[in-house]
Amino acid sequence: MSDANDIPNDQPLSDAAAGFAKEQLQSFIERIERLEEEKKTVAEDIKDVFAEAKGTGFDVNALKEILKLRRQDADQRAEHEAIVDLYMQALGMLS
């Protein structure tokens, strides 16, 4: 892929190249706008699922914590849990 720096500053873009660049830029912008709209829809769907879970008696904060833990690999999770346990012991929160 070429870089804008590959074009000497003293040579203007041809009309065809400028038209292509404009079309390509517009395509990128429109794709990003569509993805942003999809992201908004997905975020609303997730919010609805959390509301449904809460309505059936589940603790939403606990669900969010589980989701966070599931994104971590086993080593990351074990390290985090060890640090939390250490801090809780230091604060006298564990027996």
Automatic annotation (TrEMBL):
Classification lineage: Bacteria, Pseudomonadati, Pseudomonadota, Alphaproteobacteria, Hyphomicrobiales
UniProt keyword terms in alphabetical order: Coiled coil
Coiled-coil ranges per UniProt: 18-52
Domain GapR-like DNA-binding positions: 21-92
Protein name: UPF0335 protein KIP89_03740
Family indicated by similarity: Belongs to the UPF0335 family.
Keyword Coiled coil: yes
Pfam families linked: GapR_DNA-bd
Biological source species: Ancylobacter radicis
